[in-house]
Design brief:
Strand order of the largest sheet: 2-1-5-3-4
Largest sheet: 5 strands, mixed
Shape: globular
Order of helices and strands: EEHEEEHHHHH
Distance between the termini: 46 Å
Bound molecules: FE2/S2 (inorganic) cluster
Number of helices: 6
Radius of gyration: 16 Å
Helix content: 25-40%
Number of strands: 5
Strand content: 15-25%
Length: 163
């Protein structure tokens, strides 16, 4: 570690964590390098691609645009936590069933963004889904299958079932 360091206490995926962190380290680098939570990916590092999407205090953020130091006292949920809790099990199954991923590089961020939309409760239109996911780039799928999967889960959740 070089430069100025800070002591940080936060809750990550339900676990209270205290770490010393470089003041300049981004949240996504902290998660990946210091906590070995490598499900959040690093693509553009400029807030454009959405690969680094995680949840901080209930809201999705770009992990590459936020400093770890800004998360002192915060609650952070990564794709590992969302997956382990079963919160997005239906979305994960729908992505698999509908071939909504190929290389999978965008998928953690895509799932986090999709869950952010669906937890609002209403069934979004396909245009709403596209709009909400427009900050998450996928270089493989052409998006159609992703929208299909998210739409199917939205409809299934509205009926109280699984996709
Ligand atoms: S790596 Fe953060 S938005 Fe691309
Ligand atoms: S599945 Fe490859 S970037 Fe989306």
């Amino acid at each position: 570690m070089s430069g100025y360091a800070l002591d940080l206490t936060l809750t990550v995926n339900g676990e209270r964590i205290s770490e010393r962190v470089d003041a300049r380290k981004t949240l996504v680098d902290f998660l990946r390098e210091d906590l070995a939570l490598t499900g959040s990916h690093v693509g553009c590092e400029h807030g454009v691609c959405g690969a680094c999407t995680v949840r901080v205090d209930g809201e999705i953020v770009r992990g590459c645009l936020m400093l770890a130091a800004q998360c002192d006292g915060a609650t952070v949920d990564t794709i590992e936590g969302m997956s382990d809790s079963g919160e997005i099990a239906d979305l994960q199954a729908a992505f698999e069933q509908r071939n909504a991923l190929q290389c999978g590089y965008c998928t953690p961020g895509m799932l986090a963004a999709a869950q952010d939309l669906l937890k609002r409760g209403a069934v979004p239109s396909r245009d709403d889904i596209r709009e909400h996911l427009s900050g998450n780039y996928c270089r493989c799928t052409g998006y159609h299958a992703i929208v299909d999967a998210v739409e199917a889960v939205a409809q299934a959740r509205a009926k109280g079932g699984r996709s």
